[in-house]
Amino acid sequence: MASRVLVYCAFALLAAVASVNCNIEVDALIAWKNKLADPNNVLKSWDPNSADPSNWTHVTVNDQKNVTRVDLGRARLAGPLVPELGNLTFLEYFVVFGNNINGTIPSEIGHLKNLIRLELQQNILTGPIPDSFGNLTALKFLDLSNNNLTGSIPVSLGQLASLQTLNLNNNNLTGTLPIEVLGLVRLAVIRIINVSNNKLDGSVHNSTSGFVVTSIVQDPKA
């Protein structure tokens, strides 16, 4: 009988430990941290043994301890974004501008349906803008400017009925601005678009009180 009690207690203890240490959002941020060079040690407080990121610097959580904000602008971080970031499903603000973030943008970022503001500008990101960004239906501000992104502007961005600012300036994007995106302009949903300094075809000159569309011009280097 005593041995059965000990076995039960051992299982109960293991279950308790698992419940304390298991947090998919913590795991996601630690997976990202492990891929980053952090010369200023700004992520020192990101503890892989903690199930509660409330006291982590540059991280904001809600009352349920879900991560709602990551602020790492100009933190001198280097390295890629990781697919695990798509598990931060309560995230509303992801601000990582002015670093040396490289590689492609994971399509899993499109899982962040509560995202309001996404700032990845002034990095060295390559590859296409994921088509999955069309799932970011709460997004109001998207800035991917000053990277090395290639490919076309996804038609799916025309699904972002909350989007107010779209900045894709200074990349290597090709093709044309999709009519689906222009439709948001005509409905005065998007108030500012900047797609200059790419390799886009055609031009748009559209300036109406209340919103501004930066002209699309043929890149002279194209």
TrEMBL record:
InterPro entries the record matches: Leu-rich_rpt (IPR001611), LRR_dom_sf (IPR032675), LRR_N_plant-typ (IPR013210)
Signal peptide: 1-22
Residues annotated as domain Leucine-rich repeat-containing N-terminal plant-type: 25-60
Alphabetical list of Pfam families matching this protein: LRR_1, LRR_8, LRRNT_2
Gene3D superfamilies according to UniProt: Ribonuclease Inhibitor
UniProt entry keywords in alphabetical sequence: Leucine-rich repeat, Repeat, Signal
Protein name: Disease resistance protein BAK6-like
Gene: LOC107435234
